[in-house]
Amino acid sequence: MATLYSRDSNASGADASSVVEPALPQAVGYVVVVVIGFIIAFVMVLATYVLKKTAGEDNRKTEMFMTANRSVRTGLAASAVISSWLWSTAMLGSALVGYNFGVAGPFWFAAGCSPMIVFFALLGIACKLRIPEAHTLLEIVRIRYGKVGHIVWIVLCLINNIIAVANMLLGASAAITALTGMHVIAATFLLPAGVVLYTFIGGIKATFLTDYFHTFVITIIICFFTIKTFATPEITSVGHMWELIAAAGNQHPVEGNQNGSYLTMTSKGAILFGIIHILANFGLVIMDTGFFVKAFSAAPQAVVPAYIIGGIAYFAIPWCFGTLMSFAALSLEGSARFPTFPRRMSSTEISNGLVLPYAAIAIAGEGGAAAVLLITFMAVTSTISAQVISVSSIISFDIYRQYINKKATDRDAIRWSHIGVVFFGLFSACFSTALHYGNVDLGWTLYMLGVLTCPGIFPTVFTILWKKQSKAAAIVSPLLGLATGIAVWLGTAHAFAGEISVASTGQTLPCVYGTVASALSPALYSVLISLARPADYDWSDFRKERLAFDDAVPGFGTTTGAKSTSGGVSADEEADQRSSYEADKAKFKHWGKISAVWSLATFLGHWVLWPLPIYASGYIFSKTFFSAWVIVSIIWVWGTMLVAGFFPILDGRKQILQVWRGLTRSGEREKDVSPQASRGTATPVASDSGSGKEEKSSE
After folding, report:
1. Which residue from 429, 439, 447, 469 could staple onto 462, CB 3.0 to 4.6 Å apart?
2. Which of 435, 369, 469 is nearest to 140 (CA)?
3. Which segments within 93-249 are labelled E, that is strand?
4. Is 673 left (phi over 0), alpha (psi -120 to 50) or beta?
């Protein structure tokens, strides 16, 4: 494994066994993970209570608990999109690949995320158009392909969620342990605890609010490091950093890079990582039902703008932060400031994701350690919350409601959602612990996860966008793809290393081959099987089954032709619904075209037109070019902070004002109990669907 993650065979230095003392006391780790975790949980629970009292958002109703009444506005949804990919892995991993490969590493990390986030706008709006009442991806699969297809996707999606959470917890717990000395298993079990509490009570809306708060804090801290890095006496400026990195490349040349330099996009190791990363991330996004839950929760007109804005804004975080922190580590590891001085970091430390914590300590001492501890904690808890909601939706809607109790009531679904939240929180901690004791770390999961997450990419996209995919193709192709990917992965690992072990299966080339086979072979299998016996699915069949517990889906009316829980609809009502659907259909097709153009433009820009010419040229960055590269990334990340922090406030100002009025009127009602006052208690409820209109609440 050292051959994959260390920059050269001597990366461990002469004293690799020496232990770096934690920069912070162990008590600080417990305070952040336990005390702050439960404080945030309490605040989110309180916010849920306030929204229920002032805005009528009742989390005892399934539509509110699971999809926030499908009314989340663009600003809050965009912040949640940024948060969904603002994993602890994103910050720890981008610094890791920057330290290993130079400027190319963080860029390819960022480029491996933004295209599929923007592409998800297309999938989200297509789902809104074709099956507006859906709660999960798996409901869509079940309606189109039946029980067998449904079970296959349940397995694929659960594998995706389990691997994703394990990846997050392994990196976060290792970083927290390095910073505070807190026992790694204690961190692994305590991190999900607060998440389970507020998700249990608040549901998806609590997840959105927590996403917003955490993302705002994290981006503020990242912006702090963009200033503090260059206030360090050993660095002082971007130009001086270039000089230090150029010297580091001469002293420790990077194998596979142009002239061994860190200052080049011509890096074989980085582009191979980029291939793994973009395919694995397509799998993580498309097979993560949490992304679909958030898309279903957004107001219809908010889906496309939220995912486009969120995807473009997110790009700056791993690009800028990964570049600055990895280069700070390379610049300072030869000085007494660096925690490992006088030795370099060992391959184990690098693979555990400790480049970022060590760089932060070198830049800002205990303050830097505390900042990284806080952003690691917030990143991992925010993304775990989304994963917990995702799995709980599978357990309640796709397992319990479908196979245990078909007549499940609203209360039954909520109860099983709660059971799913608690179960997955506990299971994820246990699974991550097992991986830790199996000598599996962040670096290994970062490289191999695509083998397991990618088989469902094309069958899922075809399910939503291609009516010709047959039932047989949908069921068989992901299973064959998974088998193909695993076989190629293990076979190449054995061929290159002579054995199958954690070390051999974590090497770059086996992971590249396995991920590519796992991602692309299902497309071939599906097309061939579908051409042999093509289907011609009628998209309107999606709307024949009633999925929502309430009579109407906000922003789209009652589903046309669906059998209502109240006993059906009259001919006049159905005609009105059909007219409403046709009007919304035209709008959604317009948004679909916009999302398709943006998806293509983002991929071409971030993966083709920008990086590949620089890669092909073999160019080594001059001081001027490097300065421009870093300054643009810093400006971009500050823009991301403004989008994540202030856009939701501006966009949601009407509901904020509504909540304030509700709170003040509640206080007035407590003081004034006259009959006249009691008759005027109806509170205007601002629609969060984006119309900006107000409706009277009914009690």
Report:
1. 469
2. 469
3. none
4. alpha
CB-based contact 381:37 (threshold 8 Å): yes
Structure-block tokens of residue 41:
């949980």
Strand, helix or coil at 103? coil
Contact 550, 484 (CB under 8 A): no
Which residues does 174 contact at the CB level (< 8 Å), separation at least 6? 184, 352, 353, 354, 441, 442
DSSP state of 267: B
Asked if 654 and 686 touch (Cβ cutoff 8 Å), the reply is: yes
H or E element, residue 694: strand 694-696
Phi and psi angles of residue 97, each rounded to the nearest 5 degrees, phi first = -75, -25
Which residues is 257 bridged to in the sheet? 267
Tokens of 650: 């501006």
Secondary structure of 162-192 as H, E, C letters: HHHHHHHHHHHHHHHHHHHCCCHHHHHHHHH
Residues 196, 388 contacting (CB under 8 angstroms)? yes
CA 94 vs CA 43, 217, 394, 457: distances in Å: 31, 19, 31, 24
Nearest to 433 by CA among 643, 269, 640, 191: 191
Residues 556 and 67: beta-carbon distance below 8 Å: no
Ordered by start, the domain boundaries in the chain are 2-54+73-459+596-651
* One-letter identity of residue 394: I
Q: Tokens in use for 487?
A: 């076989």
pLDDT value at residue 651: 81
Residue 10 has a pLDDT of 36
Please give the Cα distance from 691 to 467 (Å, whole number): 33
Cis peptide before 300 (omega within 30 of 0): no
State the helix-helix crossing angle for 268-286 and 88-101, rounded to 10 degrees.
160
Helices 114-130 and 268-286: angle between axes, nearest 10 degrees: 20
Q: Measured between alpha carbons, how far is 570 from 576 in angstroms, rounded to an integer?
A: 10
CATH class of the domain at 2-54+73-459+596-651: mainly alpha
**How many Å apart are CA 182 and CA 620, to the nearest integer?**
42
Residue 313 contacts residue 82 (beta carbons within 8 Å): yes
- CA 641 to CA 218: how far, in whole Å? 9
Blockwise average pLDDT, block size 10, the chain, 699 residues: 34 50 89 83 74 61 52 78 82 93 96 89 86 81 92 91 84 87 89 72 62 88 95 92 95 94 96 91 84 75 87 94 96 91 88 90 92 88 77 83 82 80 86 86 80 92 93 95 95 92 89 94 95 89 71 46 44 52 74 91 94 95 96 97 90 76 65 46 39 37
Question: Radius of gyration of the chain from Cα atoms?
Answer: 25
Interior angle at CA 378, CA 376 and CA 381, nearest 5: 105
As a 3-state breakdown, the chain gives helix, strand, coil percent values, each rounded to 5, of 75, 0, 20
C-alpha span between 458 and 523 (Å, rounded): 5
Please, what's the b/e burial string for 499-533 (b: 16 or more CB within 10 A of its CB; e: otherwise)?
Answer: eeeebbbbbbebbbbbbbbbbbbbbebbbebbeee
Longest dimension (CA), the chain: 85
Tokens of 36: 């702050």
Token pair 């706008």: residue:
121
Contact indicator for 555, 299 with CB cutoff of 8 Å: yes
The tokens for 252 are 């420790």
Task: Using the CB atoms, write b or e for 157-171: b if 16+ within 10 Å.
Answer: bbbbbbbbbbbbbbb
Residue type, 336: A
pLDDT score for 263: 97
What is the reported pLDDT for 151? 94
132 contacts 67 by C-beta, under 8 angstroms: no
Rounded to an integer, what distance in angstroms lies between the CA atom of residue 213 and that of residue 80?
10
